Structure formats: C-alpha cells, structure tokens
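Quick start: load a record and inspect it. Here is MarR family transcriptional regulator:
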Amino acid sequence: MTDRMLWSYKEIAAHIRVQPDTVRSYRKHGLLPQPDHVEAGKPYWHADTIRTWVANRPGNRHRGG
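Running the structure step on this input writes:
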C-alpha cells in the first residue's frame, strides 16, 4: 500500500528534523523533487515521494530507521 497523504513544507521539515525554511531553501536550490500537487500556489508532496527522496539523499543520516 502506498502513502498518498500530501505533505507541505511543515510535514517534510518535521520528518527530516529541520525548520520549514530549510525545506523551502532545498526547493529553491533544486534539491527537492518536483511537487506532486500544487494548490493555490502552495506545493505539496506525497509522503512516499519524500520518503524515497530522503532514502536516496547523499549523506542521508536516517538510513536504516
């Protein structure tokens, strides 16, 4: 089963333990995947999209857990 829940900057930040502004900076610098959905100009990502991105990030500190 896939997790299709949509995450904003806030949920992504909580997942990777950084501030939402850090996640915004990642997007600005092309480090985040493209949003899965945009509503009223705000980007959202499926939880699975972010989990896959986190698992494949260089220097990932969250491997294995």
